[in-house]
């Protein structure tokens, strides 16, 4: 007996076929947007006034391969701090006469209480390291409103920390180098905070914001963090009034 589809079955199969084609096209478009719409990375020989992904990746390689273990309490974390400070000192040597470059290594201590999963948690810490660089014009003052870029160089347990957060440190180092080598004079000071204790409840940031002399000058900041190895940029955290602050990056005022 011959098998024949009813007109309703034929129509149903046509709908399913069209949906499959539509789903396939949408998947291709989504993949291309998420994974293929990136600018061409620049090499190590890129002009000094351009951000070079290759130069940044070299920092990632050193931090995650040459340095063994950047977890709190391990020697690798100390080596990472020294590497970052060395890179910043090189930038200071190359800076033009109209730039003021200030580099500090801060040993932080402190304590605080926080709510974690509905429970009160008290933490005390000592002898953690932050590396701080401030780039400003030669006429700037310590009290001038400033912009902060923050990233951490400690790594999560059991990981070499290439993404979290060697990539953050590498990006910040390349941005700092670009700022110095481009000859641009920032209208407001830029503070680069490389903090050495984020994985343990953000101790490095707490130490900076409670003890550092520049903490009260910060008018805006970006916390550079890793959230995977691919895909679109992700806003990790933002308070309700952030888009009403009136930050003007072109003029450096707020």
Describe this structure in words.
It is found in: Endoplasmic reticulum membrane. Keywords: Endoplasmic reticulum, Glycoprotein, Hydrolase, Membrane, Metal-binding, Metalloprotease, Protease, Transmembrane, Transmembrane helix, Zinc. It is a multi-pass membrane protein. With about 250 residues, the protein is an alpha/beta fold. It has 2 domains: about 35 residues; about 190 residues, 3-Layer(aba) Sandwich (Aminopeptidase). The protein has 5 helices and 5 strands. The protein has a 5-stranded mixed β-sheet, with helices on both faces. Helix 2 crosses helix 4. The chain starts with 6 loop residues before the first helix and ends in a 31-residue tail after the last strand. The C terminus is likely disordered.
Summed over residues and divided by their number, the pLDDT gives a mean of 88
Widest β-sheet, arrangement of strands? 1-2-4-3-5
CATH class group of the largest domain: Alpha Beta
Largest β sheet strand count, sense and barrel closure:
5 strands, mixed
Instruction: Report the count of strand segments.
Output: 5
Query: How many discrete domains?
Result: 2
> Gyration radius, to the nearest Å?
24 Å
In CATH terms, the superfamily of the largest domain is Zn peptidases
Give start-end ranges of low-pLDDT stretches.
243-254
Which percent band covers the strand fraction? 15-25%
Helical content class: 25-40%
- Overall, the morphology is globular
The sequence of SSEs as H and E is HHHEEEHEHE
Q: What fold name stands as the CATH topology of the largest domain?
A: Aminopeptidase
